[in-house]
Specification:
- By secondary structure, this protein is α+β, with helices and mostly antiparallel strands.
- The chain is built from 8 helices and 4 strands, in the order βαβααααααββα.
- Strands 2-1-3-4 form a 4-stranded mixed sheet, sandwiched between helices.
- Helix 2 packs antiparallel against helix 5 and helix 4 packs antiparallel against helix 5.
Length: about 190
């Protein structure tokens, strides 16, 4: 059986997009302030919320999934931190003239900065050669199916925008601009 450890009083899920400035604000507040403030009383689960109006977002999310695949959850969150910190490099204005491979290469440099083998990372994001050999003209890469499952999960839950937060299974109308005090005003009564 899976689930959340019994010490957890509040289970939050967050749906974030790596190229959304509001997601970055929410990410840093929740993972770098709220989670440490409550310790093992709060569990926060990250979900990939790819926003189609940011076309390079899919590449960023595939990159994060590749990091997790290669080096696990700790590396995933280190990578997520550096990607959110440098997200402007992946905004439309800075990627418009870049190819998919060039964007993956930049993401590979970020992955390498958190200890991921860049060559293995790039292999996971290369077009699926076996599918191409079998005639596929739109094969995706080794992270494509994982990203499809993430998108299916958020669609199944009715998520549309990022950031979206749930608290103990219910969507909560929070703001990416909330301070730690605003979060504690909401969460403290749930700790009893």
């Amino acid at each position: 059986m899976g689930g959340v450890p019994s010490a957890v009083k509040v289970h939050m899920t967050v749906y974030h997009d790596y190229t959304c400035p509001f997601s970055a604000k929410s990410y840093f507040m929740l993972f770098n302030q709220v989670a440490p403030h409550y310790g093992d009383k709060v569990a926060i689960t990250f979900y990939h919320q790819v926003q189609p109006w940011h076309p390079q977002s899919s590449y960023c999310h595939e990159a994060a999934l590749a990091v997790a695949h290669l080096n696990g959850n700790d590396a995933f969150f280190k990578f997520s931190n550096v990607l959110m910190q440098s997200q402007e490099e992946y905004y439309d204005i800075n990627t418009y003239d870049l190819t998919r491979r060039q964007i993956y290469d930049k993401l590979g440099d970020l992955a390498q900065s958190v200890g991921v083998d860049k060559a293995k990372f790039m292999e996971l994001l290369a077009l699926d050669a076996a599918s191409i050999a079998n005639g596929s003209k739109n094969p995706g890469n080794q992270m494509t199916q994982n990203l499809k499952w993430e998108i299916k999960a958020s669609r199944t839950m009715g998520m549309h925008v990022s950031p979206t937060t749930t608290i103990n299974g219910l969507v909560y109308d929070s703001s990416s601009g909330w301070t730690l005090d605003q979060w504690t005003d909401l969460l403290d009564p749930l700790m009893a």
